[in-house]
Amino acid sequence: MLKKPRxxxxxxxxxxxxxxxxxxxxxxxxxxxxxxxxxxxLQVADSGRxxxxxxxxxxxxxxxxxxxxxxxxxxxxxxxxxxxxxxKAGVSQGLFxxxxxxxxxxxxxxxxxxxxxxxxxxxxTKSELAKKAQTEPAPDVEVxxxxxxxxxxxxxxxxxxxxxxxxPSSPAPPSAEPTQKSASSNPGSKSSDSPGTLPxxxxxxxxxxxxxxxxxxxxxxxxxxxxxxxxxxxxxxAISDAxxxxxxxxxxxLKPEEEQHFQxxxxxxxxxxxxxxxxxxxxxxxxxxxxxxAGKKSHSAPAPEFHDVQMRAFDISNxxxxxxxxxxxxxxxxxxTQYSVVVVAREDIYAELHKIFAKITDxxxxxxxxxxxxxxxxxxxxxxxxxxxxxETWDSGTAYAVYRVIGDRLWPLFEGKPxx
Length: 420
Hints:
It is built from six helices and 15 strands.
């Protein structure tokens, strides 16, 4: 019998121990949010104006409506100076600093200062160049003109110190003027002076705040701008968390042929759901051959026509398994009903799709069945994994819902109610 060399076994043990140590270090470095952590929806117009709508806030691993939590009188999620980081599929897009909050039709919103990631990077580069210019020694400059301009003043001349002796006392009065200006500007920059801010309690939980050393956000109006945003508006998920993990990308990269393959399968799932929705079995129909035949007949009906099809793929748990979200509008032949379709499916290790969520409504049923609009994958609880954020629209108003993918189903972390 051949024996393995001892050094081979020792090497294997060393590698195993090193791998265990490295995994332990990775686990230790992983940051999770202790809360509070707020999720909002940022609306950005082409003009650069932005408006923030609170969605949900996590406090003590419990989720609450961010538009109502601690609204005394302004919700905690909309306190002046709170900073939100806008993210698309986990990638930072910029920072929004809350300026003021107001209500419209019973729903809270906030205006403030929106700075894109490109602007932040440009300001950072400009600041670094300015600091570098200050620390570098000034180059020698040749002074032109008569030779006497290059000479140092004659230290033995009594006239030089006599002329410069009264100078130190003259700058004293002007030096007090900047001190008075900065003192008068400080009260205006304190968030505690604005209405609705929380008292200065070092033990209270807070969201991400504007740093005291940062640029002062000037408030040009006494209250928030209630004028609606005009023109094309993009919707971006946003997060505020003082101690939460850094965002990470959730996009699952698909090749063009893979995208076409998955979209075909997702549309097939959506078509089946839509046919069942359009021709459901009658309440008095009993299970049996007749109902099965009716089911086959409904599935053999003309195929629906899909419009505005959008499919997005995410790796929300960092396991290299895709979660697909398809949204579309649809119509059936010889029908004027307009349908709204959302289907979510998960890919397994064998590249097979499993439907885990489907919502279908039509333009005649919005009083009882909301229209679902997918916003994005966002880390709502601060554990590094992504959840799915939807906006729901009824005839009576809008609300938001956050779902976590668990196996072959979506688990609701938060489901809001429409405003009045």
